[in-house]
Structure formats: C-alpha cells, structure tokens
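Entry 14. Structure prediction run on the chain below.
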Amino acid sequence: MKIMKKISLFIFALISMFAFTFGVSALDVNDEASLREALSKGGDVKLTENITTSTKRIIIDKDVNLDLNGKTLTSLIDVTSNKTLTISSSVEGGKFVALANEYSDEEKKDVETVYAVGADNAKVIVNSGDVSSNDKQYGFYALNGGTITINGGNHTAGYAVLSGNNTTGAMSFVINGGTLTTKYGPAIYMAGPIDLTITKGTINGGISLRMGIVNISGGVINAATTSLDSPKEYFFYSGNAWFADALYVYGGTYTTDIKGQTNKLELNITGGTFNVANGQGSPIAIYDLGKVEQVMNVKVSGAKLTTDATTRTSFDVINLKDLGLVKDASETYTCDKTKCNAGNQTSTSTYGVYSNKHILTTSNETYTLKPNVKAETDGVKFESDDAFSTEYTLVVAPKTEKEVKDVTTKLTEAYKDNKKVAGLKLISLHEISMYLDNEVVPMENGKYTISIPVAKDLRNFKNYKVIYVNEAGEIQETIDAKLVDGKVVFTTTHLSTYGVIGYNNPTMNPETSDNIVTYAVILCASIFALGSAVTLRKRYN
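Output returned:
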C-alpha cells in the first residue's frame, strides 16, 4: 500500500509539474457549436477546422484569445462588457471572413451598418491573420467607446476597414502595423469624436476625419483611386463621403451627438508618408465647410507628402468659396440640385486655426517636412519654431564694401550722442535668405533663431547687438543679441539683411562736471554726518 501511495503521489506530482510548466492548453474547436461554447467561457480558443456560423452574430462577453491556426472562420462577432478579443494565427493563412449581408429585416434591426467584428464598450486586438468583408460591408466597427488595435495582418472591406458612427458613441483606433485596404472610399472613417493613433502600417484608401484627437507618427497612407465623390456635390453630406485626398478632415459639417464630447479636432502629424495618385486630391486636405462652428488645430511636420494633382498642393485648407459655391440672396449656399446630396444649407461658420505656414504651395513635387529644422551655411545657423521643407536652401550673402561703408556711416551717426556706447564697430553685414530652386522663399511672421560667427579678435566686446537693414539701406531695427560659443545669437520674425555690431561701456570721465558735483555733494554730506555723530557722543558722555 505504501508503495502504491508513493507511485500515486509521484504520478500526481508529474501531472502537476507538466500543468504548471506548460499551462492549460487552448480549447480546440471544429464546428459552430464548439466554437460558441468555447467563446462563451473565454480563455484561449483555437480553430482546428474551417468553420462557418449561422447569420446570428456571436456576442463575446469574456476575455478571449482566438487563434485562427491557419484556418478560416466565417462569422460575425461583437465584443461587449469591457472585455478584450485578441485575434491571431499561429499558422500562416488564418482568416476571419464576414458572413454575407443576407439578413432579414428582423435580424438587422439593431445593425445600422453591417460589419465583420465590432467592439461595443470593449477592445479588439489583431496581431496576425486576415479579416475581410464583402463589397457591401465594413470591416471593424467601434461603438460606445470601443477600441480596435491593429498590429498586423492584411485586412480588406468594401467600405471602411475601420469605422464608427457619431450616433453610436466615441471610438478609438490604434494602427501599429498591418495593411488596411478598402474598395470604396476611405480605409478609416471617423464620423464622431475619436482617438486615432498611427505608428506603422499601410492604409490604402485614405483617412476621413471629422473631429477628435489624431496622432500620426508613421505609416503609409495612400488615397483612393476609384469611385471618388466630388467635394462640390457632397459639401454638407453627413455620411461617408469618398474624397480623393490621402487624409481629409470633413470639418464644419455637424456637431457631435455624444454626451460630454465636442466637435473639436486636434490633428498632429509628425511622420508618415501621404500619397495621392488619382490626379485630384491633396496629401492632406482640411475642408472647412462652415455649416457649424468648429475648432480645428492642425500641425504637420516630419511627413512626406506627394501628389500628382495639378490643381492641388501638398496641404490645402478648402472652404465653400474654394469649391466654387457662392451665396444667393437668401444667404444659402447652392449647388446643382441634380447632383448635390446636401441641398441648400446655411453657413454659420467661424473658421478654425491652422499651423500650415510651413507647408509648400507647389504641386507635383515630393516634400519632406521636419519639425524645428535647422539649416546652416558658411557657419551661419538658422532655426525655426515652425517646420520648413528640407528642399529649402539657406543662402548667406555678404554685402558689398560700399554697402558696409554706408551702413557704418549711418550707424556712427545714430550712436554719436549715446554716452553709453564706446568703440562701436560693425562686425559683419549679410543678407540672409531661403531659396527653393532659384526663387526666394518669403520667411515672414515666424520665430527664427539665427547664429552668426564672430572672428576671434572681435569677441572681446562687452556688448553685442544686431541691426536690421531694410531694402533702402536704412537701419530699421536694433535687436538684442548675445555672444555664445563664438557666435552672436538673436531672434527675429523674418529673414532680411542683418548686421552684427559690438561696443563697450565707456569708462568714467573725471572731467565730467556732473560727476564732480555729485561726488562733492556726497563727500560734504559724509563729513557733516561724521561731525554730528562726534558732537552727540561728547554731549552724551
């Protein structure tokens, strides 16, 4: 008996060890019944056969890790109750295919748009495997604060691969990899207040935004090339308009219905590549259509923007007037009623604020934008708070001997009565400009920091200033400056001709009558005070 007990304990220990070491294996499923049962329990679920479910959508209210395992699951799924569905495929070739849109009226009463996978106050994470829908369906759908994260896989849909609706709550999308491709319109359609983050991946079909917080630091965004809508005909359309731009903000069209949310947009682009190859669109387009008031803060830097359109630029802000729409006598915007989906609408807009000063206005080119780009030529360094194209060239041209002489004369005349300046000298005089090809680029109303080198034998001045010299050769402004590491550094709002001056503070002149009188008065007062103190001391004693 003792031997049998020991054997039993040994076997139990081995089982426990293996269970502890390798964990509990995933539930293998091979048909609809076993799949639904496994998903209702939660945990790890693995397909061992291709499975096609009935048209009734599967509701997941547990945390589930679904391994497609190289198989194909044809179904429709909603994740709810603040739970998380993670989709992957441990074997290459795993697919999730949406059932065909063949609902009866009763079955589709709660399905405004048909989609493959939904996140209803829940999370969906796709690490690998492919998710696809047919030509009349959306791919992933987020509602009531749902979040969808794409880390990998190749995902396709007839309409938007990622979508939500302004009437069904806020949404959050995160793209860290994978490929999203749509047949009609944008691959990402954000109708309401959203959080969108893109770090990597490829998006074929573009991005449509209206409001929310958007941060894009990488990835490739390609505009749609077919089935495009005209902005002039869809200018107040409340649904998914299919425009020709790689990323377009459909702004000023409506407010949000979601409690606690506004229609404000914060769009921050610090990287990524935005391509247009349809001959019509902009890499980035902001449609400020003015039906309702909307604040849209847009910052673009570090992005590569390309377009083959001859009537568009790398970045465009477009209003109703730009679309060729004018007000009639009744103060309404009009369009061709046979084509215009919106009809006549009244505009009450106040236009938003855009950080687009650094965006180039030349089409048919590829530009790379970088934040706080520094340029340097002949030791002169230039830095802007706003980004500017790396296609720009900093040109520093010294002024002629005659120009230097003329400015020196004017400088001497201006400071001749200044008793606080001694040994004044014009150290250098340069015209500082930005060029694109052979054309000067106006650099105005910015915040620019410029550093100009100073020769070693001219670095012993006590004070340094910079003068702005206008086109007429007149000294227009004197700017504070300081010597840092052998360079005079100053800040200005524009590029022009600047001169560096150095000077010292004069030593005290003992012959100055004002100073002599002052010192005499102080001396007499001191003697009087001392005498009074001695007299008082004697009386006291």
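The mean pLDDT is 81.
Filed with the rest of this week's runs.
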